[in-house]
Amino acid sequence: MILFHLFDHKTELDLDLENRPYTFVDLETGEKIKVQPIEIKEQYKALKQKRIQEVKLTCRQYGIDWNEIDIQEGVSKVLDRIFS
Question: Which residues form the domain of 73?
Answer without folding.
Answer: 2-83
